[in-house]
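Data card: per-record layout.
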Amino acid sequence: MSIALHSCNSRILCGGCSNEFNKNLQFSRFQLNFRNRHQFVDFTSCRRLFAAVDRRKSPFFTICSAKDADVAAFEEANFSSEKNVDGELTCVMKFGGSSVASAERMTEVVHLILSFPEERPIVVLSAMGKTTNNLLRAAEKAVSCGHSSVSEIEELAFIKELHLRTVKELGIDNSVISGHLEELELLLNGIARLKELTLRTQDKLVSFGECMSTRIFAAYLNKIGTKARQYDAFDIGFVTTDDFTNAEILEATYPAVASKLYSDWTNDHAIPIVTGFLGKGCKSGDITTLGRGGSDLTATTIGRALGLKEIQVWKDVDGVLTCDPTIHPGAKPVPYLTFEEATELAYFGAQVLHPLSMRPAMDASIPVRVKNSYNPKAPGTLIARNRDMTKALLTSIVLKQNITMLDIVSTRMLGQFGFLAKVFSIFEDLGISVDVVATSEELDRVIEELGKIAVVKLLPHRSIISLIGNIQYSSLILEKAFSVFRRTNVNVQMISQGASKVNMSLIVNDGEAEQCVKALHYAFFESGEVSDAALNNGIVESVPAN
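The structure for this 546-residue chain is written out next.
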């Protein structure tokens, strides 16, 4: 059966002769093989064409007859097979800091990876354990301690001891990381001399964590006879904005990363070990970071770039849970989520995923599987574009604490065009997120500016409780939720249901928030009670649908 590749109404020009490709390419079960896989054309559009056929394979490259020396032949390939074809890369496996926190944990993760012989993974790693936090604390102390005392900083000593102990226990030579440890101390000395820590320097500083963990991991794999190659993300095409500490990945990243990783893998089947969290500023050329938890975004970006079949995010919990287990130990794993649900969960405070990490996977329709590296046999959570929502009521409860609410009142708002636009423009001008006002200094500036157009009342110490689920049944969800609030004598101060089809948020006092989460969790996930309204709507479960 032939397969049609459509070009989405865009012009596709060949890198060999600049002729326009046929917009409706037809071929049977064949794939192109190249005599010289180094000579690729610009394949941004070609990658989109390939994705329409099978997202589990590497990007589809093509070259016209003007470069026919690069094309060997058409070879038959079964695009529908679930098995790995010709040893192509199949998935991304991302491991967080706790998963690689010690030599013992690294050994366990290596065994975990090798326990899936059918997979050809790209591995993305975070820094070891709490290394990122220790690097930031070391920098803060360097600013105030003075140049002569840098070597005495406790966090620096801990970082050195952890990494040197790890390489020793793994039987790896110190040279794998010794240069980075020396450079790290020199950088801290520079910070101490200047008595200043810029955001640019901070990003350079925290990059040492991922750069060392990936080098140790790759060296250990090679030591035990499994070929591996270490990559710094900022050297393989991760191009970002120059927003240090919270940079955004640019579209140019995708073809660059795919070209580098695919060509290296074709020449030598060594497992790629890539630093998470890091990129390179498009203008400055300096190291940038993607925000805390940004290794998830690194993983999904690589998955989309190469059109892989799955992205695996390995954490220290059994997938995405029905609530924060530190608040309520009875939290249960959620077996399935949609991309939209996962995005809302991350945005409103769930620590399992980076808020922006779902976008690349969603764009390419690549499923994301969240699993527990400490308990690899647990099924985890599968995140995909769609799932059966017919019997799903509530998926998860997320708590975001220490929120400040601003009550803005103005009689001029009535009948006045553009009032809300003025309010939001003030936040934009001050560079402050509407739902995250972090410091008292920022609050003072906001109140001063808003006070020119309205009366502003400050309401600190609030919490947002977000109910993520099937908002098609919002009346039923609110019925059960307010029954809980009534029994616990909690006053809900605000309710919000925005454009999202999966989220409703309620604001309560900080001191009541955790009590509310526990009570809500019992009502939705543990009591087994279903109201008359649920029966009338055809809902028979108040737990996540399987």
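Known properties of this structure: Residues 91-316 form a domain with the Carbamate kinase fold (CATH 3.40.1160.10). The mean pLDDT is 81.

See the next section for split statistics.
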